[in-house]
Amino acid sequence: MTALNRGSDPAAKAEAEPAPPPGSGGSRSRRRLWLRPRLRRPSTPLMAAVAVTTILACVIFFWTWRSGLATGAAQPTWFAGYVDVTVSPPYAFEEASGPASTDVVLAFLVASPQDSCVASWGAAYGLEEAGTALRLDKRISVLRSRGGSASVSFGGSLNRELATACQDEAKLRTAYRDVVERYEPSFIDFDLEGADLLDQAAGERRAKAVASLQGDRNASGQRLAVWLTLPASPRGLTDAGISAVEQMLQAGVQLSGVNIMTMNYGASRSSSQGMLEAATAAADATHDQLGIVYQRAGVNLSREQVWKKVGLTPMIGRNDLPGEIFELDAARGLKDFAVGLGVQRLSMWSLNRDAPCPSNDQGQDASFTCSGVDQGTTRFADLLGSGLPGRMG
Length: 393
Fold this sequence. Notes:
Blueprint: H1 28-32, H2 44-68, E1 78-79, E2 81-84, E3 103-111, E4 119-121, E5 125-126, H3 127-133, H4 136-145, E6 149-155, H5 162-165, H6 169-183, E7 187-191, H7 194-198, H8 200-219, E8 225-233, E9 236-237, H9 239-250, E10 255-262, H10 275-296, H11 303-307, E11 310-314, E12 317-318, E13 325-326, H12 328-341, E14 345-346, H13 380-385
Parallel strand pairs: 1-14, 2-3, 3-6, 6-7, 7-8, 8-10, 10-11, 11-14
Antiparallel strand pairs: 3-4, 4-5, 8-9, 12-13
Helix pairs in contact: 6-8, 8-9, 9-10, 10-12
């Protein structure tokens, strides 16, 4: 998500049997299938009925496709915190210490340094290696056995997202499919920023690959939810962020929503604007932008429906930029804002950081493993996630 974290510290997947041709010795009933019927010219009423049926089928297909752009199984507000998989010491997400820690988003899957069309965790562990060195598959299984759920996030700021690195569309689809089939995530998330977000050709490859994978999964009865996680300022999404959403919709991807990073605003946040105010302003602006984007795609959504397409993810405690600190009160306020408007998704960067820093580590820089603010025994995850009406999935 930020230069601090995303990508992470290396230390730290009936049709009937064709009838035999005439003379092949098949049964009498089989041979009958090969008899050529006498051709008769269809009547004019029949032709008209066929034409009407064809037109209706096309209309139904179009409206189904178009309405599909707006689908995503919207639910009441739910929470799922990010876990930086490759940070050391590892965060024990499988222990699920409370309702707010039950659902997690594991980050970040990026292109492998050895093969740009193969997924890795943080460019440090291949999928198999993560299964052994990090016990990742086993830990996900334990979490699910305790009623939790796990999703996965591609991208981040430190390494190259697969679509940026991999030029071969078929191999890119395979790389995404390998991840989905291995981990069976509740949803897949694309954290796009920097070069990954600006690369238009990569965006088109990504959108086509995701649309293909999602279509295959949906056809087999295995729904695949898709989220975009994008940078935002108090003025909303960047132009590149809007383009990323449009590319997904144009490819036919059924987006569950757009999760904005309410963090690291820099000069876009006025000196009189607190972190909570900046976050709510970013949410309001993004809401309006998404309404227009969907309208351009031929889908008219109500204000309430657009809020169901929004996610909010603050960076708890110290952000990467000096003077930007997301305090406990801001977390309380953001949760109230989200629930009040029906925002679908709340998250945070990250569960690894949800603890006060040791007294000898209270510097001005953000840490991988602590928030940098005085939390006492209070957890940001509880403030943002406890008691929410919805559940990820």
